[in-house]
Design brief:
four-stranded antiparallel beta sheet, globular
C-alpha cells in the first residue's frame, strides 16, 4: 500500500476512530477468500471462529501487514468473523461498541467480566486498556452502500469523553465500500448496521488484531 495513504489512514484512525482504505486487498486475494464462503442458498448471518481456517490465505497475510502498518507494531489476529447479509439473512444491529474479546481459555482475572461461551470459544469483556490496544479490519468481499446494509459509524466516538450513544444516529456517516476495500476501526467506535432496503449479498470478513499481551494466565486464541 502507498506509504502516504497508510500514514494518512493511521492518523485518521487515531483522530476519528476509523478509516476506509480503498482496494487494500487485490482482486485475486479477495476471490480466493470469497471461494471459501460460497454457499448455494445462504441462510446463516455469518460464521465465527474462522481464524485457524483462513490464517494462511493471501488475503489474511495482506490484512496482517496492513494492521501492523496502521498500529506500527506487531499486531496479531485474535478473532475472525464472517458477516453474511443476504436476501435470506437480512438483519440490523443497534448502535454499540465491540467490548468483548475471544480468549484461549477461561481464567478468572481482575478486570475481565461478562464471560460467555460462543461456539466453543470463551469470550469476556476486558479492561478498556486492552481494547485501546486493538484494531479491527473489515474486508469487504462484496460492494455495499446504505441501501444494502453498509456499516454506519460515529466519527470520534472511540474516545472516552464521547457520549455513550448518538441520538438517532446524529453525526453518523455511512461507510459505503467496494469489494476489496478495508474499513479499519477501533473496537470502541460506536457503529450500527441497518437492515438492507435492497437485499443483496453483503459479505464482510471482520478480523480483530491485538498489539499487547494479556495478563497471565489469559491468552489470546491460537491462530
Amino acid at each position: 500500500m502507498d506509504l502516504a495513504l497508510l500514514s494518512a489512514s493511521r492518523a485518521q484512525v487515531e483522530r476519528q476512530g476509523y478509516a476506509l482504505l480503498p482496494q487494500a486487498v487485490h482482486t485475486a486475494a479477495c476471490a480466493a477468500l470469497t471461494a471459501q464462503f460460497e454457499i448455494p442458498t445462504p441462510r446463516d448471518a455469518g460464521r465465527r471462529n474462522l481464524l485457524r481456517g483462513l490464517a494462511d490465505l493471501p488475503a489474511l497475510r495482506l490484512l496482517e501487514r496492513l494492521a501492523q502498518g496502521l498500529t506500527q507494531g506487531p499486531a496479531r489476529a485474535v478473532r475472525a468473523i464472517l458477516f453474511d447479509k443476504s436476501t435470506a439473512a437480512n438483519w440490523g444491529v443497534a448502535w454499540h461498541r465491540d467490548l468483548g474479546i475471544a480468549l484461549h481459555e477461561r481464567h478468572e482475572t481482575p478486570g475481565f467480566r461478562n464471560w460467555s461461551l460462543k461456539e466453543g470459544v470463551w469470550h469476556a469483556q476486558p479492561p478498556i486498556e486492552v481494547l485501546r490496544g486493538m484494531l479491527t479490519l473489515r474486508l469487504h468481499l462484496d460492494a455495499c452502500d446504505a441501501g444494502s446494509g453498509a456499516l454506519h459509524v460515529v466519527p470520534g466516538s472511540h474516545r472516552p469523553e464521547h457520549p455513550d450513544a448518538p441520538v438517532a444516529g446524529t453525526g453518523s456517516v455511512c461507510c459505503a465500500a467496494c469489494a476489496g476495500d478495508v474499513l479499519a476501526m477501533r473496537p470502541t467506535l460506536l457503529h450500527a448496521s441497518y437492515k438492507a432496503a435492497i437485499p443483496q449479498r453483503r459479505r464482510v470478513l471482520h478480523v480483530e488484531y491485538a498489539t499487547t499481551a494479556l495478563p497471565a494466565p489469559l491468552q489470546w486464541p491460537a491462530a
